[in-house]
Amino acid sequence: MAPKITDFIEDAGPVGIVAGIGAVILAPVLIPIVAGIGKPIAKSVIKGGLVAYEKSKGAFAELGETWEDIVAEARAELAEDKETPVFEAASSPVDNTSDNGV
Fold first, then answer.
1. 48-63, pLDDT tens digit by residue?
2. Residue 78: in which H helix or E strand, if any?
3. Alpha carbon distance 45, 51 (integer Å)
């Protein structure tokens, strides 16, 4: 069963009812005051976020360049390892004959 407004009033009690009536009466006065205070606060939060975004954008760009440099160095080392044979050829030929007369 859906709650009724009377259920809410009974649950709120006399103090809740007075607070609700007070809020309704004071709302036209308090909303402009809160809006006047809230707007500069919201604007300063947004400005701070924009400044942080611009600073982080530069930091991320630098991080990206560093990452690209590291990847390029790793690729160069891999290419160098592929070009260098694991077993290098000897400068003189090896004699496979033994001296024991066989």
1. 999 998 888 888 899 9
2. helix 5-83
3. 10
pLDDT, position 86:
56
CA pair distance 77, 69, nearest whole angstrom: 12
Structure tokens at 30: 């308090």
**CA 44 – CA 48 distance, rounded (Å):** 6
Residue 11 burial by CB count (10 A; 0-12/13-18/19+): exposed, middle or buried?
exposed
For the chain, how many residues are written?
102
Query: Which amino acid belongs to residue 99?
Result: D
The CA distance from 20 to 15, in Å, is 9
CA dist., res. 38 & res. 78, Å (int): 58
Quick one: pLDDT at residue 29?
82
Amino acid in the structure at residue 6: T
Sign of the dihedral through C-alpha 32, 33, 37, 42: negative
Tokens, residue 44: 């300063």
